[in-house]
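Onboarding guide, step 5: your first structure request.
Type a short instruction followed by the sequence, for example:

Predict the 3D structure of this protein.
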Amino acid sequence: KTADSAPVIAARERLDIGAGTLSNTDHALIYSDGDMSIGGHTDSLNHATGEGIRLENHSAQIEAGGSLTLHMQNVDNRDIHLVLSPEPVEISREHHHEFQLNGGTPRYDANDPRITADTSSREHHLTTPEGGAKDFYEFYFDRVTAETQVIHKDPAEILSGAGLSWQGNTLTNQDSRIVAGGDLTATGAVSNLESQGERRVTETDQGTPQAGSGSRHHKKPGKRTTGKKKKSRVKTSTYGPFVTTTTLPLHLMRYEGDTVPAENPPSVAGRPPAAVSLSAASVGSLVSSTGPADIPLVPDAHPLLSLSLPASTAVPLTSADRHIPGTGNALATVSPAPDPLPPAVSPEMAFSELTHAQNVSPLIVPAGQHFTLTLPPENGHGDTEIRLMTPDIRLPDNSLF
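The system replies with structure tokens like these:
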């Protein structure tokens, strides 16, 4: 493979390959518009026959529009460029305020209409569907969910439009796809392996206004001996952290027959296309059309009010120069072009490092990766950070033509 181009082996009707060892890597494509057969060698008719030793399909593609036959002792279909985040990444944070009777099981959200909580009077009291009491708990905490992220994936694919048959000793399908439009048959040991992620849910009062005192035990007042009634007592303590960790499926592997590869969905039956009709009275209305859209152009529908021209030391434009040909309108203002945009902001830059010009510049985020921008405390909106992720859009680097 070169820097921007991957090799291709293709046939219009039928492709036969005879090889002891076949290595297909890094977006290389082996394709047949009809049937394909891969074996140890070819016969006098150039048809694949016998059994090869090893087939490696690493982050590459083997595809037949018809049936696909593999007679290889060992097949390794693997994503060799998979990258997962080393630690789970925070994806959500929920603020919670809950109440619970002492000795009770269920917890109730503070906004639950079924409960009444009085924590400001001399005697604190909680009423729930279970009953009421002056001895209860109050909790302030955040529930933070973090999950393993797929930073980069580049699965290998073995695909057939019809049946797919493999005969050999071992077949390993690691974080990749083996999909047949017809029957998928295997003679040998098949190992479908998928990398697992982790979902981590943490409940803690750290990072909240109640940090260190998120758990509050409201105790009923003691007995009065003389004088005024005693007040309810509140004992505070740290809430959490309580961590629950579970396995997170990442859905990186497919091994299916009698199905259609997701990358090549069937075409949808035709339906009348929608055309846009523009007019001065009604703009953007949708009409049904069976032919090309007829979009009339209405003069003066949107008069031009300003124009940005390159900076120049020439004589300023006169009113005649500002006249718009074919109309009775003229440009209201003429302004020089703005200065060139400042250098783009990279995700590695801290907010404090940004200049005023860079604050209004587009932010470049690597495709498929999460980026968190921590806001300065004076932003005044109560928000502390912005999270975003750009889609992973990559053009193929192999081509049949």
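Each response can be followed by summary notes, for example: Confidence is low (pLDDT under 50) at residues 264-293, 295-313, 334-338.
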